[in-house]
Amino acid sequence: VNGVEGKTSKSISQPKTKKSKPSNVEYRKVPVPQHRFAPFKENWMKIYTPIVEHLKLQIRFNLKTRNVEIRSCPETEDISYVQKAADFVKAFVYGFDVEDALALLRLENLFVETFEIKDVKTLRGDHLSRAVGRLAG
């Protein structure tokens, strides 16, 4: 008929629905500054291994945004592990060694608190450097 041959199908395709994420997925992003990028890449496996094997979380390093993205998965036993892992990564970003930062994963009620020296006293130039040196030493 009209030069068209073949069978016609009367099946109506169902509209495709997007799969929604489960509502119980916890997610954290930890930014990695420029000066910690090289040490982070060198120690990636030391950071990755305890988070994936012990806490059973999913982790990736987004090179475009320079963020470490941590999220829970169905195998995650405790939802608070996501925050523990984020604190562990933040401690490394702040300058702790991986071995020292691992204490945050092992021990309960342990956390890292930081502050800006400029919030305490207004200092500039050499005076600021000297104050940082005195606190660190």
From TrEMBL:
GO terms, molecular function: RNA binding
Superkingdom: Eukaryota
Region of interest (Disordered), residue spans: 1-25
Coiled-coil intervals: none
Annotated source species: Triatoma infestans
GO CC aspect terms: nucleolus
Alphabetical UniProt keywords: RNA-binding
Full protein name: Rna-binding protein pno1
